């Protein structure tokens, strides 16, 4: 069961990644992981399987454009966990530094360009932990997952299935209800006018208090460009995790 949970967590992480030919090639493996993943009856397993099949049939450029429109324009559906807690405050920089140190203490080595609060990366980390520790970490971010699910649902996005499934794993899917009204009433932040306003406010950022903070902020700015320009690995295997096995330490706050 532990292996099935780990593979399922990695499959969920991959489904949140930017669509690539390698991801499409791995979809049969991903579907198999979803079929074997130990999920409660309330979890949207059938919907996950249908979505993974649909992703294989949609033209890749169409999937990529939809992904960029959903996650790279505006902040309300950001896959950076601390975006929903700290925004662009200095607290966010410190929270990322703290989480990065927890990864490192656990032997979980990140690429220098990776942001520690990026949800697919966080799920990859969880895939290396025992089930009870996975539940602890998911409980720690359940409020973020619930808000993200509600916001993605308002956009009729299948990507809402991932945080919904994570909440189902710990029996906390009811938290989504508390955020649905809020998500429906929030003004759109992915319009050209809203995006321009953000750029005008943050053309220059002086919030870094250390070289490490500067590196994290720089990494955030590079993430979108590098997603499109970095050569992808030849294959993506959800059962091929080369990072050292970490030990759990602390939580996300």
TrEMBL record:
Biological process according to GO: chaperone-mediated protein complex assembly; nitrate assimilation
UniProt entry keywords in alphabetical sequence: Nitrate assimilation
SUPFAM superfamilies in the cross-refs: TorD-like
GO MF: metallochaperone activity; unfolded protein binding
Alphabetized Gene3D superfamilies for the sequence: TorD-like
InterPro entries: DMSO/NO3_reduct_chaperone, NO3_reductase_chaperone_NarJ, TorD-like_sf
UniProt keyword Cell cycle present: no
Keyword Nucleotidyltransferase found: no
Superkingdom of origin organism: Bacteria
Entries under Pfam families matching the protein: Nitrate_red_del
Chain spans, region Disordered: 209-253
Protein name as annotated: Nitrate reductase molybdenum cofactor assembly chaperone
């Amino acid at each position: 069961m532990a292996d099935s949970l780990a593979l399922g967590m990695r499959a969920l992480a991959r489904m949140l990644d930017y669509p690539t030919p390698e991801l499409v090639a791995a979809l049969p493996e991903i579907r198999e992981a979803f079929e074997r993943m130990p999920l409660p009856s309330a979890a949207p397993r059938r919907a996950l399987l249908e979505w993974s099949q649909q992703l294989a049939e949609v033209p890749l450029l169409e999937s990529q454009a939809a992904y960029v429109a959903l996650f790279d324009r505006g902040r309300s559906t950001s896959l950076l966990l601390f975006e929903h807690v700290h925004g662009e405050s200095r607290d966010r920089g410190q929270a990322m530094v703290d989480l990065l140190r927890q990864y490192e203490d656990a032997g979980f080595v990140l690429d220098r360009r990776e942001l520690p609060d990026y949800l697919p990366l966080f799920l990859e980390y969880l895939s290396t932990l025992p089930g009870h520790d996975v539940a602890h970490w998911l409980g720690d971010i359940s409020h973020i997952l619930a808000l993200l699910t509600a916001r993605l649902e308002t956009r009729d996005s299948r990507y809402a299935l991932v945080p919904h499934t994570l909440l189902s794993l710990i029996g906390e899917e009811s938290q989504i209800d508390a955020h649905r009204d809020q998500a429906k009433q929030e003004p759109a932040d992915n319009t050209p006018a809203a995006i321009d306003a953000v750029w005008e406010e943050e053309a220059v950022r002086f919030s870094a208090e250390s070289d490490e903070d500067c590196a994290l902020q720089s990494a955030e700015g590079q993430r979108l460009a590098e997603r499109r320009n970095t050569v992808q690995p030849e294959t993506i295997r959800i059962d091929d995790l080369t990072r050292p096995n970490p030990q759990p330490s602390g939580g996300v706050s």
